[in-house]
Every structure is written in structure tokens, then in C-alpha cells.
Sequence to fold (100 residues):
Amino acid sequence: PCPIGRASRVLGDRWAMLILREAMLGCDRFEDFLRRLDISRAALTSQLALLVEAGLLSREPPDAKRAAYRLTPAGEGLRGIYRDLAAWGTQHLPRAGSSE
Fold:
């Protein structure tokens, strides 16, 4: 498949996008992600595992009960895309409750 198809398999889920956003904002612990996102524990566990498997996050230390999740170089490589996506959303999508 094309590169966009491959990327959409990893990034196409709403939670994946929001978890990565929070990681870019400095969130790195399971409980912090849970508190900042309206996501169930099971969904967060699953999504973090997928993002680690995809190479966008690392789990440090890998087998610890209270590990930290850190952006890998591949995850860091998405920062520009996130900035562009935020700018596009600001320009083209009205805020919730807005009459625009």
C-alpha cells in the first residue's frame, strides 16, 4: 500500500492522534494520559501498545509496572504535521458551539 495508507493504519484512530498530541505536550505516564483524555483504561492500554509497536512511542523501562511513554524519533517526526493539522483545523473548522 501507499505511504498514506500505511500511516493511516497507525494514525487513523482518534485516540492515537490525541495520545500523541499529549505526548508532544509532555505527558508521559499512563495515569496522566488517562486524566487528560476521556478514554477508558482498556482503550488507553491498547492504544499505547499499538503506538509502541508502531515505533512512535517507547516504553521506559519496557517491563516496568509504572513505565514512562516517550516519543521516539519517528514520533518526534510528526511534530510538524501536528502543527500543520492544528493550523488547518483552526482555519477551516469552527469550534464546538460556534455559530461559524
Remarks:
- The chain has a mean pLDDT of 93.
